[in-house]
């Protein structure tokens, strides 16, 4: 059923009260059905999607574009950046789901996504860009990725064009390195599987960015979150570093990591 735009603010408030456990889902549902004559299953979708968005989880049934914009707008007012990030991540998972189901594009929702993603702080935006790039990189042959890394030093341009899309070069390079190193921690080999089937790994600079350390395979260590924090906050000392290898002491233990990629 078509939900009148004028009702959406009230739907939002009810969803929020259900999310805060001030109302049960059944009470919220009854209120909206009785007050506005809405269809029960549409209201259920709103209530469920609200919860999924705040938790960063995929939802299946879609909202209309007006409602989605209204919800996201309110999230920017009522919650912090982390929450907006989760909501947009849920939205992107929803878009992928719908596009997989229909074999087509969901341009309206993609447009909404791109309107709100720019409201996030840069590090959150980078994470989305990273996801996007990872998709592209996954389908690129290994030799092409290696060739890309070899050519890195020849340019100072901070953006790169891949299949007609412009990405920040550093983000793209990190994605290539992660793919070529198979998303594993270079200290303990841990891989973290995400529920969307991809892997999570963090990147640490051997020579810090502030000291002009670059995003190149010989300056990036892929680390699991534990080792990344230990590397940053522990007693860490680099004892040897060249293009092929880095040796470092971390909290009293010595590590030797190969940096070449072939
Ligand atoms: Zn590790």
From TrEMBL:
Residues of the HNH nuclease domain: 185-234
Keywords assigned by UniProt, alphabetized: Endonuclease, Hydrolase, Nuclease
Domain of life: Bacteria
Claim: Hydrolase is one of the keywords in the record: yes
Secretion signal, residue range per the UniProt entry: none
Tagged with keyword Hydrolase: yes
An example Gene Ontology molecular-function term: endonuclease activity
Name this protein carries in UniProt: HNH endonuclease
Organism: Hymenobacter monticola
């Amino acid at each position: 059923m078509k939900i009148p735009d004028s009702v959406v603010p009230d739907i939002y408030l009810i969803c929020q009260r259900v999310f805060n456990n001030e109302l049960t889902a059944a009470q919220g549902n009854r209120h909206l059905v009785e007050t506005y004559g809405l269809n029960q299953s549409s209201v259920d979708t709103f209530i469920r999607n609200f919860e999924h968005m705040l938790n960063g989880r995929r939802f299946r049934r879609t909202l209309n574009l007006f409602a989605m914009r209204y919800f996201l707008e309110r999230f920017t007012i009522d919650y912090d950046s982390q929450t907006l990030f989760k909501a947009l991540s849920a939205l992107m998972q929803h878009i992928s789901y719908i596009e997989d189901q229909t074999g087509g594009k969901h341009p309206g929702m993609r447009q909404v996504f791109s309107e709100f993603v720019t409201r996030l702080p840069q590090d959150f935006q980078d994470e989305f860009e990273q996801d996007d790039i990872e998709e592209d990189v996954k389908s690129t042959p290994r030799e092409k990725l290696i060739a890309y890394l070899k050519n890195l030093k020849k340019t100072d341009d901070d953006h790169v064009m891949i299949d007609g899309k412009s990405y920040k070069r550093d983000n793209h390079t990190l994605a290539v390195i992660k793919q070529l190193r198979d998303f594993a921690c270079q200290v303990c080999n841990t891989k973290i599987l995400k529920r969307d089937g991809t892997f999570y790994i963090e990147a640490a600079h051997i020579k810090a960015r502030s000291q002009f350390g670059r995003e190149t395979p010989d300056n990036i260590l892929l680390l699991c979150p534990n080792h990344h924090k230990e590397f940053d906050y522990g007693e860490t000392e680099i004892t040897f570093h060249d293009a092929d290898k880095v040796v470092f002491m971390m909290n009293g233990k010595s590590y030797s990591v190969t940096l070449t990629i072939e």
